[in-house]
Amino acid sequence: MLYLSGLEPFASSVQSQTYEIHELGHVFGFFNVAHFYYYENTAGAADFMSTSLLEGGFMEVLREYPLLAGTLQKSKRG
After folding, report:
1. Is residue 49 within 8 Å of 42, Cβ to Cβ?
2. What's residue 72's pLDDT?
3. Is the torsion defined by CA of 51, 60, 20, 5 positive or negative?
4. Three-class SS string for 19-58?
5. Which of 25, 29, 65, 66 maximizes the CB count within 10 A of its CB?
6. What is the overall mean pLDDT for the chain?
7. pLDDT tens digits, one per residue of 12-22
8. Nearest alpha carbon to residue 2 among 56, 59, 54
9. Torsion of CA 46, 57, 35, 22, to 10 degrees
10. What is the number of other CB atoms lying within 10 angstroms of the CB of residue 14?
11. For residue 13, which of 71, 57, 52, 64 has the smallest C-alpha distance?
12. Rounded-to-integer distance, Cα 14 and Cα 62, Å
């Protein structure tokens, strides 16, 4: 379930699907490197890192990659 505000339209537009993940999918998960970028508002701009733009970008990513918003469940086969 999505708990972030503003995600209701996205949640209602996603069709539930099952994707089978193979062994290689699990292995490659260990090689992902997370990058975090921090930006300073040196100019003191009021519209720096607009919440609506950030949320819109996040929603676009979820529409393109709905697996990022899903849940994992173990099947009977493991």
Report:
1. no
2. 61
3. positive
4. CCCCHHHHHHHCCCCCCCCCCCCCCCCCCCCCHHHHHHHH
5. 66
6. 72
7. 777 777 777 66
8. 59
9. 160
10. 13
11. 64
12. 10
Return phi, psi of residue 46, to 5°.
Answer: -70, -30
Tokens of 46: 């009021």
Instruction: Say what the pTM is.
Output: 0.47
Which residues in the chain come in under a pLDDT of 70? 1-7, 21-34, 70-73, 78
Q: What does the pLDDT read at residue 3?
A: 47
CB of 10 within 8 A of CB of 63? yes
Q: Cα–Cα distances in Å, from 54 out to 17, 47, 57, 61, 65?
A: 27, 12, 5, 11, 16
